[in-house]
Every structure is written in C-alpha cells, then in structure tokens.
C-alpha cells in the first residue's frame, strides 16, 4: 500500500512539474475593466486558483464535520447519564432497604 501511495505522489508531482514547465508565459489578469495586472505568470494564477479552491472546499466541509462530532459525542453523553442514573438508583435501593446483593447484580450485567 505504501508503494502505491508513493507512486501516486510521484505521479502528482510529475504532472505538477510538467504543468509548471508548460505554462511559463505571462498573462494579463483582469478582475474588472478598471482593475488589471500586466505580465502575471500563468502558473501563479493557476496556483492561486487551486489554493482558493482547496480553501473553499475545506470551509464547505466544516459544518458537516461539526455536526458529525456532535453526533459522536451524544452516545457518550447518554452513556454517562445512564451510569449516573444507575448509580443513583442503586443508592436509593440501598437506602430503602433493598437486598444487599444489588451491587453484585449490577456488576454482573456489565
């Protein structure tokens, strides 16, 4: 598996290198009719757009990741509440004069 991962990285690097060597021209970058930059390397434009896309994609995933973290935390919280409830019921049973084997029964269920 590591060999396949390294081959994939090598292929990506070689494609990026080839793209950089083939796009050495300069271009005029026009944001509006009044705002433009002359002689901007095409590779710089491609790199900036790529990085902006990565950042936008990452920001688009943030709400989903937060939602998933909340969903993962809910069972833990429920388990803690159930354990606290079980302990409170055990204490109440002892105080009410319930059988002394109650602790052994609750331990054997886990």
Which short descriptors sum up this protein?
2 strands; 110 residues; single chain; two-stranded antiparallel ribbon; mainly alpha; 3 helices
Write a brief structural summary:
The chain is mostly helical and 110 residues long. It contains 3 helices and 2 strands, in the order αββαα.
User: Helices and strands, in N-to-C order?
Assistant: HEEHH
Strand order of the largest sheet: 1-2
- Share of β-strand residues: 5-15%
Let me know the largest β-sheet: 2 strands, antiparallel
Integer average pLDDT? 83
Describe it for me?
- There is one protein chain.
- This protein is mainly alpha-helical and 110 residues long.
- It has a domain of 69 residues.
- A two-stranded antiparallel sheet has the order 1-2.
- Strand 1 and strand 2 form a beta hairpin.
- It is elongated and about 90 Å long.
- The model has no long low-confidence stretch (mean pLDDT 83).
Secondary-structure blueprint of this entry?
Blueprint: H1 2-22, E1 26-30, E2 36-41, H2 42-95, H3 102-109
Antiparallel strand pairs: 1-2
């Amino acid at each position: 598996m590591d060999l396949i991962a390294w081959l994939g990285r090598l292929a990506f690097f070689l494609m990026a290198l080839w793209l950089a060597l083939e796009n050495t021209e300069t271009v005029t970058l026009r944001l509006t009719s009044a705002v433009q930059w002359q002689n901007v390397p095409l590779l710089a434009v491609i790199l900036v757009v790529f990085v902006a896309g990565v950042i936008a994609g990452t920001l688009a995933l943030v709400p989903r990741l937060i939602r998933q973290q909340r969903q993962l935390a809910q069972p833990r919280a429920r388990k803690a509440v159930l354990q606290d409830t079980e302990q409170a019921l055990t204490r109440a049973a002892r105080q009410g004069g319930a059988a002394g084997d109650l602790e052994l029964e609750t331990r054997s269920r886990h």
